[in-house]
Automatic annotation (TrEMBL):
This is Exodeoxyribonuclease III. The keyword Metal-binding applies. It comes from Tsuneonella deserti. Belongs to the DNA repair enzymes AP/ExoA family. The keyword GTP-binding does not apply. Its cofactor is Mg(2+). PROSITE patterns: AP_NUCLEASE_F1_4 (PS51435). Residues 4-248 form the Endonuclease/exonuclease/phosphatase domain. InterPro entries: AP_endonuc_1, Endo/exonu/phosph_ase_sf, Endo/exonuclease/phosphatase, ExoIII-like. Keywords: Hydrolase, Magnesium, Metal-binding. Gene3D superfamilies: Endonuclease/exonuclease/phosphatase. Pfam families: Exo_endo_phos.
Length: 257
């Protein structure tokens, strides 16, 4: 079972690349972030042509998340992140697929620092941790995947100095991520690539892709029941170099059974 995550940076703008990736890699589950489409405009018919069924939580112009599954309909379990009834951002969706609970997240960026956007980011991370504790208590295979907008350690960025003032690398952001891991979740990419140097994002500006000036902010966190089944994890780097690509690459984990 291959669970993948892809910040697509506009599902309509990148649709040819997304369909290409689905056909070539054929993940069992594909979680999308930054769909940037209202619910009624989500191109689910295009995925159905490839054999994928989908659920999604859209929002006009920005945010938006979706879960696609090969040959089966994801069974929706949660559409928003609990803890703040006033939060209308489409950043969270959760479903059961093939005996695994999959949560797809698009965590707030948080820039500029300091400010209300950073405060929102940290509050969102605390809400996420609370939800993940509820999922943990189910004692089932769980994968919480997506764009976390956190660079966990210096080994996860091409230049710590260049990103030092960014919300992605602030001590508060890193500490909040570390607290989640401290609850017993496994960072799949880090577990199998402990040396670091594995980027999932390259900015469109300043030739970042050509110079390999990237960093890792797309993560796959596994409960013990899922981590015990992990056989491989990695990124599909080549898709960043294709025409009209997203600034993120797909990340994935394979579970046995």
């Amino acid at each position: 079972m291959r669970i993948a995550s892809f910040n697509i940076n506009g599902v309509k703008a990148r649709l040819p690349r997304l369909l290409e990736w689905l056909e070539e890699r054929r993940p069992t589950v594909a979680c999308l972030q930054e769909v940037k489409s209202q619910d009624e405009g989500f191109p689910y018919e295009e995925f159905e042509k490839l054999g994928y069924q989908a659920i999604w939580h859209g929002q006009k112009g920005f945010n938006g998340v979706a879960i696609l599954a090969d040959g089966v309909k994801p069974v929706e379990a949660q559409r928003t992140l609990p803890g703040d009834p006033t939060d209308e951002h489409a950043r969270y969706i959760e479903a059961d697929v093939g005996g695994v609970r999959v949560a797809c997240i698009y965590l707030p960026n948080g820039n500029p620092v300091p400010g209300p956007k950073f405060d929102y980011k940290l509050a969102w991370m605390e809400r996420l941790r609370a939800r993940m504790r509820e999922l943990w208590a189910l004692e089932i295979p769980v994968a919480v995947v997506g764009d976390f907008n956190v660079i966990p350690q210096d080994k996860d960025v091409w230049s710590p100095r260049a990103m030092a003032s960014d919300a992605l690398m602030q001590p508060e952001s890193r500490d909040a991520y570390a607290r989640i891991l401290g609850d017993g979740w496994t960072d799949a990419l880090d577990a199998l690539n402990p040396r670091g140097g594995l980027w999932t994002f390259w900015d469109y500006q300043a030739g970042a892709w050509q110079r390999d000036h990237g960093f890792r902010i797309d993560h796959m966190l596994l409960s013990p029941e899922a981590a015990d089944r992990m056989t491989a994890a990695g990124i599909d780097k080549e898709y960043r170099g294709r025409e009209k690509a997203s600034d993120h690459v797909p990340v994935w984990v394979e579970l046995a059974g």
